[in-house]
Amino acid sequence: MPDRAPQPVDRQLPTDEARDLISLVRDIAQREIAPKAAEEEDAGHFPREVFTLLSRTGLLGLPYDSEYGGADQPYEVYLQVLEELAAARLTVGLGVSVHTLASYALATYGSKEQQVEHLPAMLGGGLLGAYCLSEPSSGSDAASLRTRAARDGDEWVITGTKAWITHGGVADFYTVMARTGEEGPRGITAFLVPADADGVSAAAPERKMGMKGSPTAQVHFDAVRVPDARRIGDEGQGFAIALSALDSGRLGIAACAIGVAQAALDEAVGYATGRLQFGRPIADFQGLRFMLADMATQIEAGRALYLAAARLRDAGRPFAKQAAMAKLHCTDTAMKVTTDAVQVLGGYGYTADFPAERYMREAKVLQIVEGTNQIQRMVIARHLAGPETR
Q1: Which of 37, 106, 114, 248 gives a 20 to 30 Å CA spacing to 389?
Q2: Which of 365, 367, 366, 353 is CA-nearest to residue 267?
C-alpha cells in the first residue's frame, strides 16, 4: 500500500473570499513556511522574512477594520488561517496570533486619532507586535503586576520588567500593561510603546524545549518615556483591556493547537499506511487504527469548539466561557494527539529525522501560554458556579 498524502482540511467557510484566502494561505504555507520549518526551528532561526510576507499580503490584520489596513474578516475565518499556518510551523501561527493580540488594545479601545496614526503600520506596514502582561513574579496572578508608569506632565515614565514575552527583542512595538494607581486590577493602564524608545531592552531569549525559532524573552523598561497620546483607553482600564484581549487570544491558541494536532495526525496516517510489518501496513492493525480514529475525532471536536466560540464572538455575544473551553480542550488535544503520533512512529517518532517529536515538544507550551489550562478551568467554573467564596 503506498504512502497516503495528507488531505487538506474540508472547511466550512462563509464566503468565496474566505475560500480564496485559505487557498492563498495554503500556498504560502507549502512554499514558504513548511519546507524550512524543521531546519530553522533546529537552528533557532526567527523567520522575520515570513512575517514581512504575511504583512505584505494582508495576513497580519485579518480580523481588523479595512479602514486601517485590516481585512474585515470574521474571527471564524481568521482562526482557520491561524490553524493552517500553525500546521506548517507553530512559530508562524502563534506569532500571527500574538501580533493580533498585541494590536487588539489599540484596534478596540484606542481613539480615532490613535488608530489613524498607528494601525496602518501595525496591520499592514511590516511592523510586528508583542503583548506585555506577565512579569517574573506575576503570571497567573496578572493583577499583581509591578511595572509602574508614573505621570510626568504630558508623558508617562515606565519602569519594570515583563517576562515570557513572545517576540521579545524582535518586536517593533509592545502593548504594555503598567500600574498607574492603586494595587489590584483597577490601578492598571495600557500603553503602546515603540521598541526603539530609549530605555527599552530585551534579555537573552529563554532556552526552551520547543518553538526554538520563536524568541521568548524578558523585556526591560528603564524609565521609558512615552507621551500620553500613547496611553490606550482610560487610566485604570488596562486590566479590563488585557482580559478582553485574552478572551480573543485564547481562541488563537486553540486554533494553533488544532493546527499542530492536525499536522501530527497527517504524519501518523502517512507513516502508518506506508510502514510494513508482518507483511502488511501497520495501519491494518486494529489497535493502531483505533488510535488514529480517536486522534481524528478529538481534532474535529476541538475545531468545532473553537469555531462555535468564534461565531459567538462574530455575532457580538458573550464568548469568554467558550473561549476558555476551546483553549482547554484544543491544547489538551494537541498534547495527546502529538504524543500518540510519536507512538505510532515508534522509534522513528523519537528521532529528529521525523517531525512528530517536534510537534510533541511544541504542543506542551500551548497548555501554558495565555492562561494555563488550570486557569481555564477556573474561568469555566466561575461562569458555571459564580466566583469562589473567601
Answers
A1: 248
A2: 353
